[in-house]
Structures are given as structure tokens and as C-alpha cells.
Design brief:
By secondary structure, this protein is mainly α. The chain is built from six helices and no strands.
Length: 102
């Protein structure tokens, strides 16, 4: 496994845990005290992240670093890339009308 591939895998694992907790990227980055574009690059696997930031993220996710790396190593990368994201729903609830009248 190359370092770039490991970055990509760790980013996908982090994204999955964040979405499980129903955080948006921006809210999670703010709560972890990480710049949102830097955090976004980590999730996309384009940022060469430091252990300091990885530790901040793992604490926010309530997941150990070893678990993040273990999940990243066993991740089926082609299927993980193809799966749709599950971002938290923002906006009005499904099926409700806005209430605007003409």
C-alpha cells in the first residue's frame, strides 16, 4: 500500500465515522478546531495530515487511532469510493410543505 492510498483509505474511514455521528464537514471541523478546507482535504485523501490533527479527529469521533488504521487497512477501496455519501440532512423535513401561499 502506498502512502497516498493509505491517506485515501483513512479519509474514507474518517468520513464514515463523521457521517455516522450526523456531523456536517464544517460543523465537525469547527468542533475539532481544524480549518474546514484542511479537514475536507483529509477526508478526500489529498492532504498529508499530521498525527496532531489525526489525534484531534479520533478524539472527536471517539475512536482510537489503531481502530482508524485497522479499518483503513481492511477497507475495500474500489467499493468504498463508489458508495454514495450519507451526509446529515439539512433543511426542512421530508414530506412537509413549506407553507408558502400564492
Amino acid at each position: 500500500m502506498t502512502p497516498r492510498e493509505l491517506q485515501r483509505r483513512v479519509g474514507i474511514v474518517i468520513r464514515r465515522h463523521r457521517e455516522r455521528l450526523k456531523y456536517s464537514q464544517e460543523d465537525f471541523a469547527n468542533a475539532a478546531d481544524i480549518h474546514r478546507s484542511y479537514y475536507s482535504n483529509i477526508e478526500r485523501g489529498t492532504q498529508n495530515f499530521s498525527l496532531t490533527y489525526l489525534l484531534k479527529i479520533s478524539r472527536m469521533l471517539n475512536v482510537s487511532l489503531s481502530t482508524l488504521f485497522e479499518e483503513a487497512e481492511t477497507l475495500d477501496l474500489p467499493n468504498a469510493i463508489a458508495e454514495p455519501h450519507a451526509p446529515p440532512r439539512v433543511g426542512r423535513p421530508r414530506g412537509r410543505k413549506s407553507g408558502w401561499r400564492f
